[in-house]
Amino acid sequence: MPSSMSSLLSWALLAVAFFWAVGAYNRLVRLRAQVGQAFAALDAQLVRQLVWVQGSLPPALRGAAPAQPARADDAVGAAWASLQAASEQFAHSLAAARARPLDAAALAALSAARGVLETSWQRVWTLGEDPDGLALPEPMLGQHEQLLALALPLCEAFNGAVRGYNEAVVQFPAVLLARLFGFRQAGTLVPMALVAGEGA
Hints:
Layout: H1 2-56, H2 75-99, H3 104-127, H4 139-170, H5 174-181, H6 192-199
Helix pairs in contact: 1-2, 1-4, 2-3, 3-6
């Protein structure tokens, strides 16, 4: 009888452990999916920003291949060339993060690319003209700020989803499952408004 009770207790403990493991695994999968969904929403807005920036480039600087600005020897031409290069780097970083939205290195690279893009935009706007000497239209500044404002809550939602996922990954005993099934901590993204404030 004691042996039978011991066996029954062992099976009960195994059943509890199994159902706990299934529940913990499903929770990690759900949290990981939430990070992916949050990034997809943010990604759509960042693509809009990228399209707007590249559409704002002077015709001579548009396209995937870097073009020679009309006034590359002065500050205005150099600033626009820098903005073009920054937009291309941002596009590449965004594509990499889109493929691996939980990869900390990819998100760090995207944050850096966003910072460079914003700094380049601020430099162009401060100079206030295009490579042909034409003044930048005032609505451009408002459009840029609106794009930043629309991306900010999406960035915060993504970072919140990442924090929830990261907390679950390191909690004991779920951390054991995370190691077993390759759940690694994800990276957050620097909010564009913060970048804009630092770059201004």
